[in-house]
Amino acid sequence: MTFFATRMKAVALTAALSCTLVSATAHAQDQQQATQAQQVQSFVNMYRIVDYSLGANESCDLFTIGNYRALWLLRSMFRSKLRTVATDEQLDQLRPFDSAKEAWRGCISRAQDADAWSIIDRSELLSDALIAAPLKISTEPKDCRVAWGGPALSRSEWSYAATAAVSTYDKAPNKAEFETLQGELAAMIDEQCSKRQSSELMQAGYEQLRHTEDNHLFLQKGKPGKKQVFTSVGSDVASDPVSDDFGIWRSRRGGFSRHPTGTGVIPYRVLDRGDVDVAFFILSRPGTFSARGKMYLSRAGRMTARMDGNFEAIELRLSNGQSYPLTKVNGQGSGNFTASSEFVLPADAQAKLASLDDEVTMTIAYRLDGKDWASFLEIGKDAPTKEVSMADIRSALEWSGAPMPAKDDR
Predict the structure, then answer these.
(1) 20 to 30 A Cα–Cα from 149, which one of 30, 70, 178, 408?
(2) pLDDT tens across 198-211, in order?
(3) What is the b/e burial string over 64-103, where b = at least 16 CB atoms within 10 angstroms of the residue's CB?
(4) Do the Cβ atoms of 25 and 35 come closer than 8 Å?
């Protein structure tokens, strides 16, 4: 029987479904049924552990991007396994996500609640093992791509992703536990690779690698000469580092990093706690190369449009009938590829936006090359007009502004 089925320490389960799932087989005399009951219990426990940790991470900056992505993947995997014995509605009843999110507002100290922190520590062990798992797969890593648009990496490149995780447990009491988990997760990756030559479970290590390379590039900022990278992923990151916009960062809310152009507001958690940019959303007009850029949001809600093109004007148009023009503070060049411009929302307009209800939405209009006003669109064929709600903006800023635990608690 695997580590997952026998070694995971259970958390207290108060949800009625947990009892139902186990009691359905606990009294059976047949050994196979008893084994299945134990496996179900283990997966219930692990599903709740990672869901609790993801909820806690909403309110307290607990995990960097590699661990954060790992927990999302693990929760999806455990939920998939439990679907053989429970409905989605029943599994939703098991989730402690919302209660954990509320409990961790402002962060919990270890002295205050050691049991809560034991769940976080367990999740970190699981996610570190997944980050390091591609290093231990039996097949040649170059023959298996990171699913959903990622590359195929060599074993030496995966070693850079695994370095931090492996070194954490090198002399730790739970080293054997970490290595067992790493091996079992590697076997799951092997299975995915053999079936379709790709694995989504490798996304956690890939995110960790991009993050490491990105922050390393930032530390070289201002230094003469070519910037040093360690892997092909680093070469890819160097073409457009996230750190150029946000400095040293820890995590990003949203989908897989190979698809950073989502339709919503994408927030980052950055180390600089001042009124710096912490989120953005895409401004684009698909098929029109001269109409694109990003709208950045600072911690306090300041809005700055940085455009690829020397735009004449940009304006916010609200669903309540109000409109707020942005002030142009920079513009140079012409054409599609060398021009740029920057616009900032005036302070009085920012204050008015802050007073609006969550339901209010905005579209963003622009003028370029002497043409009539047009609106930015969502991404994709036949895309509708780009629309952003105040609720989306506030949610993104709240997520990016989550506090970190005290240094002694990390």
Answers:
(1) 178
(2) 999 999 999 999 99
(3) bbbbbbbbbbbbebbbebbeebbeeebbeebbbbeebbeb
(4) no
pTM of the shown model = 0.89
Q: Are 326 and 316 in contact (CB under 8 A)?
A: yes
Q: What is residue 374's three-state secondary structure?
A: strand
- Counting Cα atoms < 13 Å in the Cβ hemisphere of 28 gives 15
Find out whether 124 and 67 touch, Cβ atoms under 8 Å.
yes
- 406: exposed, middle or buried (Cβ count in 10 Å: 0-12, 13-18, 19+): exposed
Rg (CA), the chain: 24
Query: How far is the C-alpha of 166 from the C-alpha of 128, rounded, in Å?
Result: 8
In three-state secondary structure terms, 57 is helix
- The helix/strand/coil state of 277 is strand
pLDDT at 149: 87
CA atoms within 13 A on the CB side of 405: 20
Q: Which residues of the chain have pLDDT under 50?
A: 1, 5-17, 19-20, 25, 28
Residue 227 zone, left/alpha/beta (φ > 0; ψ -120 to 50; rest):
beta
Half-sphere exposure of 185 (CA within 13 A, CB side): 28
**pLDDT value at residue 382:** 83
Cβ-Cβ contacts under 8 Å for 170 (sequence gap 6 or more): none
pLDDT in the model for residue 255:
83
Backbone dihedral region for residue 355 (phi beyond 0: left; psi -120 to 50: alpha; all else: beta)? alpha
How confident is the model at residue 2, as a pLDDT?
58
In a 10 Å sphere around its CB, with 0-12 CB exposed, 13-18 middle and 19+ buried, how is residue 334 labelled? Answer: exposed
Tokens read off for 79: 């939920």
Q: Please check whether residue 36 is in contact with residue 71, taking contact to mean a CB–CB distance below 8 angstroms.
A: no
Contact 284, 305 (CB under 8 A): no
Report the alpha-carbon distance of residue 198 to residue 144 in Å, rounded: 5
Give pLDDT, residue 297.
98
How far apart CA 275 and CA 256 sit, in angstroms, is 27
SS3 state at 267: strand
